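#structure-requests
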Amino acid sequence: MTLTLAAAEKILADNFAPWVLDLGLTVDSVDGHEAVLRLPWSDRLAREGGGLSGQALMAAADTATVIAVAAARDGFVPMTTVQQSIGFQRAVVGTDVLVRARLTKVGKRMAFADITMTAEGSEEIAAHATAVYALLG
């Protein structure tokens, strides 16, 4: 069974804090061990200088990883972030960000992810993150 876009959107709506939902994230695609979320541009998320804030990118990376794990498990399972690291490579100004979370390993109790964030229409990476999750269910 493959996780549908509608099911992924429902997982997003049902399992995240209101402030995460306020980011406006949407699921663009899910496939096997990968999820792509869209973080829409908002002046409210910009930092001094006009670039999208690192906090918004970090939260988007974390959220995309949850959806990727759900895609790999054919549905939501309880999980928690164990580790997340991010490097910012270029500013994103005035455009949506595509957040691609790809699971590099999924076991019974742990999942490992590689997350790339690009400005829409660009191939250049704006931020790169890695994450480790404990799977609780």
